[in-house]
Amino acid sequence: SATVENVSVIGTGYLGATHAACMAELGFNVVGVDIDPEKITSLSAGDLPFHEPGLPELIRKHVTGGKLRFTTNLDEVGAWADVHFIAVGTPQVRGGTGADMTYVDTATTDLARAITKDALIVGKSTVPVGTAARLADLIAETKHPEVNLSLAWNPEFLREGFAVEDTLTPDRLVIGTTNTHDEDTLRSVYAEALDRDTPWISTDYQTAELVKVAANAFLATKISFINAFAEVTETVGGDITTLADAIGHDTRIGRKFLNAGVGFGGGCLPKDIRALQTRVAELGLDHSMRFLDEVDQINLRRRKKTVALAFDTLDQDVIGKKIAVLGITFKPLSDDVRDSPGLDVAARLFNAGADVAIYDPQGNHNAAKRYPRITYNDTLNEAVTGAELVILTTEWDEFKTLTPEDLNHKVTTRRIIDARNVLNPHHWENAGWTFTQLGRQSPHD
Ligand code: UDX
């Protein structure tokens, strides 16, 4: 196969910016392409519109070193790159549940039209099954007749907060192709990972597309599974953390993603399980993924439960009472508040008339864009001072290590809901706090 030297990445959002920087780190000449000129300017300076540890440094390193640049000019990369990665978004459609394919479709046809040099297009976006085959047809219709272009599918499994690490040292590489030449091209792109014996799964388009959504559906199901048991232990007694530890010791089950609490959020899991259900329904297979509707419902009930616990703790009257909400990103090490359980809880309490004070080490800015009327504090201290209730909704390290002594003389009344089950109940109860978790009994009950 032709040696790959020049790589383009179309779409410089979370996935694309990370992929572009990591491809440069692997030694390729990389150009990131985006339709938004402002994004191009700020990315070139290493300024990212989101928080991702290590990524700004990696971008700056390779922009300075000349391996990485950003452009809005598709024609330029069409004449230059050997491999083009498509990394644009597939958001949930407005007012619907399916994936919005406009960006992927437009990027693919615009790219195919711009390419004047034989190349491989590689889809990385999370898409409904059947997309790659459809795009391959679109490419064949759109491309210049004299150019050899083909399509491979290579889903991405990166986690926010670990995006660089997950991209440079993935658990596995999944490659959907229609011929061995394209597979060989990708083997040379990922030679470094192959040298480390990273599992290489070579398959067809459909499997490659489905691996991604199956992985996310499984993770979501695992979380809702344990949260469904939390609903049971809340009623009959029992301890969800001990239960998770005990079943997690069975290596067939595993302890990861069995942390009960306020549930999953973010830009991927909620959207992906809904898009998957919508896609299989289109295929006449509604029944196959119906359980994912339950997974979604269990997850959303945990948010309502957390709000209900706040009402219970405050004797069913939240109006005008100060509630400190600690953590409103969907998870730690991120500034992402998309579909965030913590922000949802805060907004519901705010709408019910509570005086909500939010503190998050990274997320205040993004949350304020969505709910500008809620109070955002720059310090934990401000948020908890005078609070009648503290709710921990994202397990940032600085919250996990909180002790009653840190808060005793700041709050008005000693009440805390630990909606991530990360604090030690005994410490708080012993210091005179009303202490509540999800799926666990109070030690004094
Ligand atoms: C996820 C997948 O992990 C990743 O492989 C995929 O590429 C994108 O989607 P991400 O959205 O970054 O990544 O977050 P993840 O770490 O998976 O957490 C998702 C949500 O589940 C968070 O809100 C987290 O708080 C929640 N969660 C996770 C739990 O509630 N309990 C758990 O045990 C684990």
Short description:
The protein has helices at 14-25, 37-44, 55-64, 74-78, 102-114, 131-142, 163-168, 180-189, 191-195, 205-236, 240-248, 269-282, 291-313, 341-351, 364-370, 380-384, 397-400, 404-407, 425-430; strands at 6-10, 29-33, 68-71, 83-86, 119-123, 149-153, 173-176, 200-203, 322-326, 355-359, 375-376, 389-392, 415-418, 434-437.
Question: Could you characterize what this model shows?
Answer:
- Belongs to the UDP-glucose/GDP-mannose dehydrogenase family.
- Residues 324-425 form the UDP-glucose/GDP-mannose dehydrogenase C-terminal domain.
- Pathway: Nucleotide-sugar biosynthesis; UDP-alpha-D-glucuronate biosynthesis; UDP-alpha-D-glucuronate from UDP-alpha-D-glucose: step 1/1.
- One of its GO terms (molecular function) is UDP-glucose 6-dehydrogenase activity.
- This protein has 3 domains: 6-202, NAD(P)-binding Rossmann-like Domain (Rossmann fold); 213-295, N-(1-d-carboxylethyl)-l-norvaline Dehydrogenase, domain 2; 305-437, NAD(P)-binding Rossmann-like Domain (Rossmann fold, 3-Layer(aba) Sandwich).
- It has 19 helices and 14 strands.
- It has helices at residues 14-25, 37-44, 55-64, 74-78, 102-114, 131-142, 163-168, 180-189, 191-195, 205-236, 240-248, 269-282, 291-313, 341-351, 364-370, 380-384, 397-400, 404-407, 425-430; strands spanning 6-10, 29-33, 68-71, 83-86, 119-123, 149-153, 173-176, 200-203, 322-326, 355-359, 375-376, 389-392, 415-418, 434-437.
- A 6-stranded parallel β-sheet has the order 3-2-1-4-5-6, sandwiched between helices. A 6-stranded parallel β-sheet has the order 11-10-9-12-13-14. Strands 7-8 form a two-stranded parallel sheet.
- Strand 10 (355-359), helix 15 and strand 11 (375-376) form a beta-alpha-beta unit.
- The longest helix has 32 residues, at 205-236.
- The site of uridine-5'-diphosphate-xylopyranose has 19 residues, from helix 10.
